[in-house]
Amino acid sequence: MTMRAILIAMILSVVSIYWQHLSSVIEGGSTLYALSTPPVPAIFCILLLIGAAPLLGKVLGKPLSKQELIVIFMFLVLAIPQVTWGVTEILLPWMTTHVYFATPQNDLHKITELLPKWYYPSDPDLIREMYEGSADGSVPWKPWLYPLGMWTILMTLMFFTGMCLVSMFRKQWADRERLRFPLLLLPISLVEKESPGSHVPFFRNPLVWIAFVLVFTHHILNVMNAYNPSVAALKDFYRIGAIFTEEPWTAYHNVRFFYRPQVLGLAYFVSPDLLFSTWFSFLMQPTSTVIADVFGLRQDPSFPFSVEQGSGAFLAMLFVLFWVGRGQLALIARKALTGDPSIDDSDERIPYRWSFFGAIGGFTAIIIWSHFSGFSPVFSIPYVFLLLGFGLVYSRVRAEGGIPAVWAFPFNEHKRMMFQLLGTRRFIRSGDASDLVMLASYSWMGRGYFTSQMGYQIENEALSDRFDIRTRRYGLMAVLAFVVGAAVAYYATLSSYYKFGAVTLGGGTTAGGGNVSNARTQWEEIVGYINNPTGPSRNRNIAISVGAVVTLAMVALRFFWLQSPFHPLGYAISLNYGYALWSNFMLVWIVKLAVQRLGGARLYRQLMPFFLGLVIADLVAGGLSWLILLAFGPRALAGYVVQF
């Protein structure tokens, strides 16, 4: 881990963050490739460095090594996403919409009265200028420094605690269970001399270029269709549910058949049982609705409560991960507490003592920070536990399934889960709704980054192990990447807000874009709970329990029947992001069955470069598509949403 690699990574992070910000907020509010996994600019930067290797070798004295390229990649995947919907672009509206949109009719002033005064600048005119744009476009930085500083402390604690927690599972997952980490095949294919499944460099394999031609043709037709709708194009999905117009088959009405090259490519490296379980479990949800309607059993329109089942499945998987890894966790605790020399952690990027005490100390510091903010530990402890716990399960999803999605977990369900289990009435004590409001003020953290970053952390550790990057400075590098990313993201986001107005950015109107409207809707919902508290939700709590029981049953079935086609992670994924994965997984599941029958392991390896080519081509073509659409204007941008 050289200093020049870190410096190059910092420079590329600044450029990449501005690229992300431009694509997701300023020019293309509906463009979702800013949330790709890994970030599109990270792939572009590595390709740029590889292509410019001869020139860089002359400028730097010697070319960048494979290890340095990997360090740069690891830095970028942690720094870049902070400017997206999961961090600054949602944090700033989350803390201020209740001020800007307050009227005597919507009672949003109740939120302002219960939040700490340092959460945001106290001058309402500064908030108004953020949403409407200031006269000269400048940012009043001084009033923002303290709120941003305090929030950065909390976010850094969350980042550090998640890093320490997931680090304790590296040996169990990578060395003992030998998980595949499919997403790592992307950087490995780019920097290695031989691509996986082949004895020639990645970009010299003809199968890779066949994949590139197919993917680029797909994107080119979609771009042309966005500019001229008369051009035929596949787009990204087909609404097969539109053919179901009569009861009880309307349960399938919202089913869409997605075909995303990146997902198709990575699915090739996922085990068949996980592929089958995902698409089968997803289709069973509307099927269960049909069966319930036929027999007159559906009394609640929300049945079968798929989201709640997903939360229960993640809770059960969290228990399973700790149970299966209890032996390794016990060794880590013994090494941390006693310094037992017989327990070797020399190959760990974060020593056992650091990861053990870092996880416990970081969690404790978060609760203390929350307590002094007015958030009772009675509620902050379970909420932070859910944030980190779901992040750990998501990390397992990434390590085993390589799911290229930041939303493959119970998205924003942490708060709702507590409301459903306890009822909002429990959060209001003697007329004081502070805990209710404080919990809502934290809920933006359940929308992406602090879950997905734990997936990047475990992948980074596995990647550094693959390239023999043995340094105890990894933790410092990761925290530096986070802080650099946060600082640049703050600057980019606030500068744009005060220049253009937050209500008009991100595809918004005078009511605001996606992030602003989400924050406003959330606070209006909380006001509704303050005025009319609710009790626990019996049906939804039953669904959470069902999700947990089904998951544990699948785990037990695999223990007694090794060839079981039902994978608990597939069930959990299908309930949280299955709508965009099931069709891709079903197609690849069929392909893998055919490959197994026709050519076995040899044919499987021969086709690996083709499917990796689909992945990298989709990331590259997706980034270029946005640049082309930007040149065509807003109408074309709105006509083709580049999704990952």
List keywords for this structure.
644 residues; mainly alpha; 67% helix; globular
Written account of the structure:
There is one protein chain. By secondary structure, the protein is an all-alpha fold. It is 67% helix and 1% strand. Helix 12 (261-267) packs across helix 24 (568-598) and helix 17 packs across helix 20 (449-466).
Separation of the first and last Cα atoms: 31 Å
Flag low-confidence runs. none
What's the helix-strand series?
Answer: HHHHHHHHHHHEEHHHHHHHHHHHHHHHH
Biggest sheet descriptor: 2 strands, antiparallel
What structural category characterises the helix and strand content?
mainly alpha
Large-scale geometry: globular
The mean pLDDT is: 89
Number of contiguous helices: 27
DSSP strand content: under 5%
Helix proportion: 55-70%
| Strand neighbour order, sheet with most strands | 1-2
Task: Kindly state the number of beta strands.
Answer: 2
Specify Rg, calculated over alpha carbons.
24 Å
Question: Topology of this protein?
Answer:
Blueprint: H1 3-26, H2 40-51, H3 53-60, H4 66-79, H5 88-100, H6 109-114, H7 124-132, H8 141-167, H9 170-176, H10 185-191, H11 206-227, E1 237-238, E2 257-258, H12 261-267, H13 272-294, H14 306-324, H15 326-338, H16 352-373, H17 377-401, H18 413-422, H19 434-442, H20 449-466, H21 474-500, H22 514-531, H23 538-560, H24 568-598, H25 600-606, H26 608-632, H27 634-639
